[in-house]
Fold each of these.
Amino acid sequence: MLGASGYAGRELCSLILDHPEFELAFATAHDQRGVKARLGRHAIDFIATEEAPLADAVLVFSALPHGASREWVTRIREAGACAVDLSADLRPGNGCDGIPYGLTELMREHVLNAPLVSNPGCYPTAILTAIAPLLQQGLIADDATIVVDAASGVTGAGNSPKRELLFGEIAEDFRAYGFANGGGNVHRHLNEMRAVSRALGCRADLVFTPHLLPVARGILATITVPLRASLSGDVLAPWREAYDAEPFIELTNEPPCLRDVVHRNVVRIAAMPLTGTRSPMLLVLAAIDNLMKGAAGQAVQNANLMLGLPETVGLPA
Ligand SMILES: NC(=O)c1ccc[n+]([C@@H]2O[C@H](COP(=O)([O-])OP(=O)(O)OC[C@H]3O[C@@H](n4cnc5c(N)ncnc54)[C@H](OP(=O)(O)O)[C@@H]3O)[C@@H](O)[C@H]2O)c1
């Protein structure tokens, strides 16, 4: 495990240590190399990345920061191990198309037995899983704009110290972020979401505004979708059709909240028509735990498939 001392890495170490078929071969850190860390009932020693015996592992997870991960994924593959990269480096839309993308429920056939998988970002996991059935079933209006407001807990920003993430800055506050040069719709997850949604048949524009929630973990995405025509009958029918029997997708008639999903490897989705609009619109809500389904849980789900294990093994439903 590379980047084991970070938020995603620690979550992943816990899953690996409790997994019935996995053993943790090594756990690396950068500033925290040499530290002995307590993870619940487990204790682990962080070694330097350069000391990781990559060839001793069957599969290596990289939870290194984006920019630093790509080079290490190359080294992992050269050492003969499989790799799951949690960073943005190898995701679609980032100049690396063709590498299997581990949005498991939608791309399972590409992940199965693959030697290398790029694990999705946390916001894209919630948002793409929520809108994919509408895209795949051609239900979104031509030339529409899908508007996404999503809020994340602060672990989404990683655990390196940042002034704007100090307790005194975020507690009892709520703000949008991800602007550049006075403009919005520039968050780095947009490339990934645009590339994947286009591959799923999307011709709509995507407007995405992330917000910072003063909680540790969890993402709630509120998505407004212009429809080609009103949906009659069961409004969740497109999701039931797409995700029938999926163990990690939950459909609900009630708006999902973070308490429903934290520490669980699920995407919880609700949909409801909007009244008072000139053309048919749907509100889709999706909640995930950014560190679980949005990172470590999905990485284990993918690793299970890559290694020919049952997809759900070692994962909290
Ligand atoms: N946090 C999330 O919700 C989330 C969700 C999905 C995907 N991801 C992705 O997962 C990756 C890790 O995210 P995170 O939030 O866990 O970040 P983090 O808390 O900042 O952890 C980064 C990890 O990488 C190590 N590291 C930092 N710079 C390094 C370098 N130059 N060389 C080698 N190791 C280095 C850190 O070691 P030290 O601790 O010793 O400095 C730490 O183990 C990122 O690529 C992120 O985009 C995160």
Amino acid sequence: MAVRTGQQFIAGLRDGREVWYNGERVNDVTCFPQFAASVASLANLYDLQHDERYRDTLTVESAEFGERIGRAFEMPRTREQLQLKREAYTIFARSTCGMMGRSPDFLNVMLAALAAKRSFFAELSSERADAIVNYYQFVARNDLFLTHALLDPQLDKSKLRHEQSDPAICLRVIDRTAEGLIVHGIKRIATAAPYADEILVWPFPPTFQPGEEAHANVFAIPMNTPGLKVFCRPSFANPGARHDHPLSSQFDEMDATVVFDHVLVPWDRVFLHENIGLLNRMYRETRMRELTAHQTNTRLEVKLGFVYAVLVRMAEAAGVVARPEIMELLGEAVACVEVIRSTTRSAEEQASVDMENGLLYPDLFALQAGRALGPVFYPKLIGMLRRLGGGGLIQLPVSLSEFNAPISADLERSLRGSGIGGREKAQLFKLAWDLCGTEFGARHELYEMNYAGERGALLAGVQREYGRKQYYLDHLDHFMESL
Ligand SMILES: Cc1cc2nc3c(=O)[nH]c(=O)nc-3n(C[C@H](O)[C@H](O)[C@H](O)COP(=O)(O)OP(=O)(O)OC[C@H]3O[C@@H](n4cnc5c(N)ncnc54)[C@H](O)[C@@H]3O)c2cc1C
């Protein structure tokens, strides 16, 4: 069935899964008002794969599979393949203005990265190595949409997982049978879990210590697996209000907690289990960061570019776009967009072949620079929206439909700007408010600050692993010797 349509994606979600919203079980996630628009936005991504304008970028006729698969699943061996991957990520990201961080391409490329390192999983056993490769092929052939959950609940950070007041909270293996592992406990934050096809679980951060073996498991199961429950946060979706909430009404990705209640994970879905040594090495040694950050930095470039464009239009609407201090502000926004844009291109330029599997990996450190700076740049641009918009951001009608009410003439006069009518300016500012003032906007700042993991740990890792460190130290040492 490779390369699904939107309708096929939607049909696949009506599978009896257990999703809870505000204390009530959701019957059909595809038409539940709080999810329906996001499901439709995701379905649109699947339909784009069949649009002849994008088909050859978003999908590829794979010799390995003997059929067409989504571009993100392709294992890159040439620079052109890397560029095409970036172009595919860009098409998806532009379709959602960069607002759906967990679009299908994100986990599809992560899975390809894991499967490309079969040898890593073979260190545990050939069965586990076969399991990850077979699972990758299954997901690619069926063009599935995955969510993932890495973290334990935020408990007592001074204690290890098994030392918590209730050791049953953090997800762990409680039994092994001929069919598979029985797992029990909780994971978070699984974005898009209510309407994903499958969930991939691997624990993070990779700092497991002796005693935590039962928690060190990597596996994947369908979202309708018995015993798997999804609990949602409050929705920020504003169903149907496309003019008044242009982004949240279309792209509010639901974040969820996932509870595993004595869940059976069949052996062919277990990729690593009860092994803290391997788990602590997995994040780094499977090289998943190189391939996923290529996608995430591409998406962030699109999102920052979108916010920059809103800033320009707001400055024009206020008649201040040519003022020196506004030019400076906009120039700083450009610099942020361009730095993130450069990370993917630089990573492709400096890509190198891994002799073990023949794949061409984008440069890790170019990409890590984007992951480290995204959490700074995105809030900075959002702050610029607030600064430029000033009180205009809240001096808005309840709904743009008020422009059809008897007060429309007064509204029009009170809201117009430089070369822009009141209604158009209100629409622009409603968009800006969705980015910088709504709960949806706040969630996006939090997302960009956290999606790549806690930033301090990320930066420490960058310094620890920096591959060009010696290159710069050697230069300094030679200079010092010359003194
Ligand atoms: C909107 C959103 C969507 C997300 N989507 C997903 C998803 O799809 N899948 C997924 O698996 N995860 C997802 N995440 C989770 C994300 O990976 C984490 O939020 C991120 O890794 C930070 O971890 P945390 O939330 O547990 O925060 P914490 O680790 O609790 O960090 C919070 C703060 O605690 C302090 N702190 C933490 N550890 C230490 C320490 N050792 N020493 C001193 N201080 C410390 C720091 O001040 C830190 O800033 C999402 C998060 C958000 C916000």
Amino acid sequence: MYNNPKFASSSFGCRVNEAEKVVMDKQMIGAGFFQDLKSPDIYIINSCAVTAKAEREARQLILKLKRQNPELKMVVTGCSATHWLRNNLWKDIPIDLLISNIDKEFLVSLIKKRFSIQSVPVQLDQLNEAGSDKFLSSGRVMVKIQDGCHRFCSYCIVPYLRGEPRSRRINDIIESIKVGTGSKPVPTPMHEIILTAINTEAFGHDSGESLIQLIDRVLKVTNIPRISFGSIHPWSINEEFIEYYKVLSRNPRFSNFFHVPIQSGSNKILRLMKRDYVKEDILEKLNQIQKINPFALIATDIIVGYLDESAKDFQETYSFLESSPINKFHVFRFSARQNTAAYYQRKRLKEPSSTEKIARSKALSELSIKKYQRFLAKQVGTTSQALFIGEVKAGFQKAILNNQILSWIKTDVSLRGKMKRVKITGLSRNNLKGHII
Ligand code: SF4
């Protein structure tokens, strides 16, 4: 069908999706497809279904791309794709190939079959390309370590779409990191790996391995300058992990960034969400992390407007976040996803109005901005290992500090991809500034 098949891709939602997109891009390039963002023949979307908004955004992108180029072949995979396939919801969407999560690993062969593409020679120059990925081009690579979830939180559709937990073996993860940093098949210079999982708690349950063993091995047998986590789920931060972190926090290669999705600070709402912890447990764990390293950035996800969330319940969440060591939060407004427990609970539990949801979301977002600004101010005068990304602009270059905070460091030459020790000297309009020491 095509002499030189060109493709582009994008992903929605979580960092696991981003990690999968990176792998898909590499597989496509490895199979001879040419990555071309401007005029692709095939466009691949790795979709998300965690909120109605994420699903809507994927649908809007498909419609927009098809409007711009009716000849473009749309391939959609991921969670929305699985949901649409299962519930027959895609008939009105101009999709040429829909691939469920379970068949994702066969993406390349399914594309070749669907569009009658014969074997194409591999574009050698493409193998050297970092691609368009915003993380890849900065040398930060998402590495998926686990898929699936067993928790079935009452609002969440993910376990239905991604299935039971499956972990990658540590050896396999190490191998892919070494391949990425070595010379074959894609010699992308990697400066940071971001370990991503749907639920870190489930990592190793099926293989007898553990997160601590994984971190240990990555630090010992690879020379990757920095290792971080996309998210660490609340159940993974147990006594053993806290003990381990006391030592780990002193390792300059480990990034002191904890994205711990807690979803609510009200015990009543946590119970309704089936989160299986109370806010006091979380607070204790986060306080310990902060005590070990006061400069660790702790972030979270919060859902507002969950079923039966009264003004008093919301106030409880607000006060919890205000006084906890969490420095930054992403706020989501609850929307019931089909087939989840919450979808059925709506019959007996009152859902806050959209006006209430908007007001609560706004209040928490404002609190987050305030807390994050305070945390940024605390960085002034500190030193950190920083990974340089982007380009030099007006004598400064962007660099990511050891706790994942972005800063602008004085330099006349590009240090892109390099790690340097820096001192933060000032803060203006949310921008940290500093110099190399
Ligand atoms: S832990 Fe809960 S919110 Fe996270 S993926 Fe599993 S079911 Fe969904």
